[in-house]
Write a structure and sequence with these properties.
Length: about 130
């Protein structure tokens, strides 16, 4: 992929009180651009303005910039069979020791894995 074809996304990760029963803490794509600098400017603008907390929020969301081919958070949820998640270590007792993918333990584990993926693939730039 050449440089001019790259797209970047800003992903927000909410700061919610536990337990997050609705999965609001899952990463969400909130902005996209052809320019990584534009994404960082968007974040800077958001962080310099007033943020009003919503229900169950403990604080302002954290924003990450990613190249969109590394992660399309919305696409991860498109795996009907859940094959994009590591189910081995999830503490779910609904289906005789196998993860059900629907209980709070499973939902929390999926969100944690999505957040780890975002943090692992974030774009870091040195700004002068």
């Amino acid at each position: 992929m050449n440089e001019k074809d790259k797209r970047y996304i800003v992903v927000s990760i909410g700061d919610y009180y536990s337990p997050d029963l609705e999965g609001k803490g899952a990463p969400k794509v909130v902005y996209d651009s052809e320019s990584v600098e534009d994404c960082f400017e968007w974040i800077e603008d958001k962080e310099n303005n007033t943020y009003y907390l919503s229900h169950n929020e403990a604080g302002r969301p954290i924003y990450y910039v990613l190249e969109d081919y590394h992660l399309s958070v919305d696409d991860r949820y498109g795996y009907e069979d859940g094959s994009c998640y590591d189910w081995e270590d999830i503490d779910c007792n609904k289906l005789n020791g196998e993860a059900c993918g629907e209980c709070q333990a499973c939902i929390s584990a999926m969100i944690e894995q999505d957040i780890a993926l975002v943090k692992h693939n974030q774009v870091n730039i040195v700004r002068s």
